[in-house]
Amino acid sequence: MDIDTVEWTVVESAIGPLLLAATGRGLVQVGFHADAARRERMLDRLAGRLGAEPVERASGRLAEAIRLLDRYFAGEALDFDLPLDWSLTTGFNRQVLRELAAGVPYGTVVGYGELARRVGQPGAAQAVGAAMGANPLPVVVPCHRVVESDGGLGGFGGGLETKRQLLALEGVLPAPLF
């Protein structure tokens, strides 16, 4: 498979089905709530943005991402050491997401403003929020670990309940009582 081929699969997780997609450069997308209808929309959008028709799991390039996600959702404290393809993000968003991936370990949180400060833009907390919302690699690039300075959860593309579940899994919040 060449570098421009996009492979995908759907894996079950504690937060519902996740669509995983990878190019020859690395994991390029993690999509929440990947039921059949949403999966088709995600794949169409991915094809348009990357200029390649996604093919269902063909070469095994998703195997390590699947293995690490299984371990993560089983409660193992780990950070994702995977090759990532940053093709779906640029500029400030890419800078913020790279800092997030490298500088906010499992079981910790960071404020939007603090993350903005870390990338040299101390007044850009709202822009950091927008970067989190545009994160093509949630869970792996842990945007769920970014919270408001007053302790509020802030937003989350996968829904606030999903964010609560991920933070509880990492021991940052108490586990839900249901």
TrEMBL record:
Protein name from the UniProt record: Methylated-DNA--protein-cysteine methyltransferase
Keywords of the record: Cytoplasm, DNA damage, DNA repair, Methyltransferase, Transferase
Active-site residue list: 143 (nucleophile)
GO biological process: DNA alkylation repair; methylation
Keyword Methyltransferase in annotation: yes
UniProt cross-references to Gene3D superfamilies, sorted A to Z: Methylated DNA-protein cysteine methyltransferase domain, Winged helix-like DNA-binding domain superfamily/Winged helix DNA-binding domain
The enzyme's E.C. designation: 2.1.1.63
Family: Belongs to the MGMT family.
Other comments on record: This enzyme catalyzes only one turnover and therefore is not strictly catalytic. According to one definition, an enzyme is a biocatalyst that acts repeatedly and over many reaction cycles.
Domain of life of the organism encoding this protein: Bacteria
Subcellular location: Cytoplasm
Catalytically driven reaction(s): a 6-O-methyl-2'-deoxyguanosine in DNA + L-cysteinyl-[protein] = S-methyl-L-cysteinyl-[protein] + a 2'-deoxyguanosine in DNA; a 4-O-methyl-thymidine in DNA + L-cysteinyl-[protein] = a thymidine in DNA + S-methyl-L-cysteinyl-[protein]
Organism classification: Bacteria, Bacillati, Actinomycetota, Actinomycetes, Kitasatosporales
Domain Methylated-DNA-[protein]-cysteine S-methyltransferase DNA binding: 92-172
Main location: cytoplasm
Function: Involved in the cellular defense against the biological effects of O6-methylguanine (O6-MeG) and O4-methylthymine (O4-MeT) in DNA. Repairs the methylated nucleobase in DNA by stoichiometrically transferring the methyl group to a cysteine residue in the enzyme. This is a suicide reaction: the enzyme is irreversibly inactivated.
Record-level GO cellular component terms: cytoplasm
Residue span(s) of domain Methylguanine DNA methyltransferase ribonuclease-like: 8-85
Gene Ontology MF, one: methylated-DNA-[protein]-cysteine S-methyltransferase activity
